[in-house]
UniProtKB/TrEMBL annotation:
GO cellular component: extracellular region
Organism: Phyllachora maydis
Keywords, ordered alphabetically: Carbohydrate metabolism, Glycosidase, Hydrolase, Polysaccharide degradation, Secreted, Signal, Xylan degradation
E.C. numbers: 3.2.1.8
UniProt-recorded name of the protein: Beta-xylanase
């Protein structure tokens, strides 16, 4: 086994800036209040963190990295790409943690929580994973070896690992990938979780996915079924990450999101929004669109605030300058809390206001009309709530799925497809 790593190299924020700035120069931090930033306010509200993802290329942007290193704003960091399999084990048995160590050292130096992402994903795999003719025995050995090397390397540094990423299919059931074809989802999913736990017993182990935020949708039901399957197998699973890649005006209402979060919490796991952004379908955004985006971010933040075991939020980049959206969804963009020149949008102000208003207000989960817990009979719905009111969040989700279908995001066949109210 060959491992390349500069992990012991010191990488404090001042050290980073000294490399990026001319001698004696300084960098202005726009619109920042280190004491009352988003993370500080989230902690005061009883949550664990408010954080951001980052990629290694962004570490060369001095203004951006200055904001990222402000723990009052972003108390948690997720490496966006550099811990994925294609980068950490490009050829079998040869490991390279150089990129991941740069971000891990940065987080450690700035006393920021590190969420590690990810171990098993059907995309961004090295070529040998696809090209090798695996048997059950050899693929099992590969999964164990890869997880042992990577999780072991970062043992004690990661608050949580996204062990399983996007394993539920958009069209129902589990994804058709090499892991499922050779081993079966009921085998490789518990296997990966057990391997991660064996190599860092103190890390929270997560299943992370997109499109599971819709109340009553097939994908949400499949995600709940995955958690139940893992529980039945006796494998460790501590959290579910809801990625939260949304369209402006297409975000479920707060009550519906609370219902989704509570559905997972009822199965014994914590929850978090792990890759949050809200993108515009048409650019540039209008003033009214920016206000709608602020409302949408507010629904996500408000839902997590209302659910005790929702531990926090990670935005998938905090500035439009480094957002993944334009290159992935041509013509779309402006998905983050800050503009490309690092100025706050109305969404930032809304998030900050909601977090500030929640100071010292952490409470047990609050019951909301029309939202049932998993396994709870419909007859227990509050008697003052009519059937029409009880179904409203689900009806809204039906219309939301239809709008996504019209924009080419999803495989629904009509306004009610995949959603059972």
């Amino acid at each position: 086994m060959h491992v390349s790593s500069p992990f012991n190299a010191a990488l404090t924020l001042p050290a980073v800036l000294s490399l990026l700035l001319p001698f004696g120069a300084s960098v202005a931090l726009p619109h920042l209040d280190a004491k009352m930033g988003l993370h500080a306010l989230a902690v005061q509200a009883g949550k664990k963190y408010f954080g951001s993802a980052v990629d290694n290329g962004e570490m060369n942007d001095k203004a951006y990295i200055s904001m990222l290193g402000d723990v009052g704003q972003f108390g948690q960091i997720t490496p966006g790409n550099t811990l994925k399999w294609q980068f950490t084990e490009p050829t079998q048995g040869h490991y390279d943690f150089t990129g991941g160590d740069i971000i891990a050292n940065f987080a450690k130096a700035n006393r920021q929580i590190l969420r590690c992402h990810n171990l098993i994903w059907y995309q961004q795999l090295p070529g040998f994973v696809h090209s090798t003719s695996w048997t059950k025995e050899t693929l099992t050995a590969l999964i164990k070896a890869h997880i042992a090397a990577e999780v072991g390397h970062y043992r004690g540094l990661c608050y949580a690992w996204d062990v399983l990423n996007e394993v539920v299919s958009d069209s129902g059931g589990y994804r058709d990938d090499v892991f499922g074809r050779v081993l079966g989802a009921d085998v490789y999913i518990p296997l990966a979780l057990r391997a991660a736990a064996a190599n860092d017993p103190n890390a929270k182990l997560y299943y992370n996915d997109y499109g599971i935020e819709g109340l009553g949708t097939r994908k949400n039901a499949d995600a709940l079924a995955l958690v139940r399957m893992v529980r039945a197998a006796g494998a460790p699973l501590h959290g579910v990450g809801l990625q939260g890649h949304f369209l402006v005006g297409d975000v479920p209402g707060q009550a519906a999101l609370e219902g989704v979060l509570r559905g997972f919490v009822a199965l014994g796991v914590e929850v978090a929004f792990t890759e949050l952004d809200v993108r515009f379908v048409q650019m540039p955004p209008s003033p009214g669109g920016l206000q709608q985006q602020a409302k949408d971010y507010g629904s996500v933040v408000g839902a997590c605030l209302a659910v005790e075991r929702c531990v926090g939020w990670t935005v998938w980049g905090f500035s439009d300058k480094h957002s993944w959206v334009p290159s992935t969804f041509p013509g779309m963009g402006a998905a983050t809390l800050f503009t490309a020149d690092l100025q706050p949008k109305p969404a930032y102000d809304t998030v900050k206001r909601l977090l500030a208003a929640a100071k010292g207000r952490a409470k047990p989960p609050k019951r909301h009309q029309g939202v049932r817990r998993v396994g709870e009979a419909a007859t227990t719905t509050t008697t003052t709530t009519t059937r029409r009111e009880a179904q409203q969040p689900c009806r809204e989700e039906q219309q939301r799925q239809w709008r996504r279908h019209q924009h080419g995001h999803g495989e629904r066949e009509g306004p009610n497809a995949g959603v059972d109210c």
